[in-house]
Amino acid sequence: ADYDVAVQMLRFFLRQAVRKRVVFRRFYHLNAGMPNSATHLERRGIQDAVLEAGAACVSLVEEGVAAAIGAGVLFQDPRARLVVDIGGGTTNISVVSSAGAIASHSVSVAGLAMDRAICEYIRHEHKVLIGEQSAEDIIIRLGSALPTPGEQGVQLVGKSLIDNVPHEVEIYSDEVFHVLDRPIRAIIESVRLVMGEVPPETSADLFATGIVLVGGGSLLPGLETRFRDDIALPVTRAERPLEAVALGAGYLLEHPSSLARFQVSNEIPSWGLETDVDYTLAVQEVESV
């Protein structure tokens, strides 16, 4: 079912991209970003879905590499950089350089996890059910990765768990901060684990180049400062964080020599970093606090 939905979604976006043409033509070459955690079958599924949606040829690139290119930092110099892409379902953490991906990992803590944490908090504390869209609106209006001076609040209406009728509740900024603190800490701990897997020379590079934040989750107010305070590295957010991966993938299509260097084989990941670190521990340890 998810595969069919993905194909339909991709086909819709491709038709939107060529909506001014009289006839929908089959695209010759498309670039698809993927996290390094994707298995052989998942990589194959991505390729098949894009082909079925209308592509004649598909190349896979590591999302961290594409994001770094889209953010305009990969080709500044040969030093390594750490890219944190906080998306909807996953956060992709990649250490990349102009030679490609050095280390990379994905964790299932990102924007949707924050939305669901808000939903669960309101259900538990106020005995009211709200949808994920309402939770996202709360995060947009009150969310912050740091405590905010002054208490702000918003009112929202959900369904009471007591009598199943609409019920209005008010939630405040300090509550939202404490709810979001757990997933933010899980992401930061995962970043530390990825940094622990790189060689000493790469660590020296990261000390100078720092962290680049991309993805919709990077727009959370105070997140740059939170990362800077907790990890003690320079932190910047991409100028166009929502579009960084797409911009990088587009650049690679326009520069075939770069695409040949960075594209991922369907059989063997190009980064090939062996690690025994269990990244789920970062999430479990934070959740147990």
Describe this entry's structure for a reader.
This protein has 289 residues and is an alpha/beta fold. It is built from eleven helices and ten strands. The protein has two domains: 216 residues, Nucleotidyltransferase, domain 5 (2-Layer Sandwich); 69 residues, Actin, Chain A, domain 4 (Alpha-Beta Complex). Helices cover 46% and strands 19% of the residues. The strands form three sheets. The protein has a five-stranded mixed sheet, sandwiched between helices. A three-stranded antiparallel sheet has the order 6-7-8. About 4% of the residues have low confidence.
Brief rundown of the structure:
By secondary structure, this protein is an alpha/beta fold.
Overall, the morphology is globular
List the helices and strands in order: HEHEHEEEHEHEEHHEHEHHH
Helical amount: 40-55%
How much strand?
15-25%
CATH superfamily of the largest domain: ATPase, nucleotide binding domain
What is the topology?
Elements: H1 2-17, E1 30-34, H2 40-53, E2 58-62, H3 63-70, E3 81-86, E4 91-97, E5 100-107, H4 111-126, E6 128-129, H5 132-142, E7 153-160, E8 166-172, H6 173-195, H7 200-209, E9 211-214, H8 223-231, E10 235-237, H9 244-254, H10 256-262, H11 280-287
Parallel strand pairs: 1-2, 3-9, 9-10
Antiparallel strand pairs: 3-4, 4-5, 6-7, 7-8
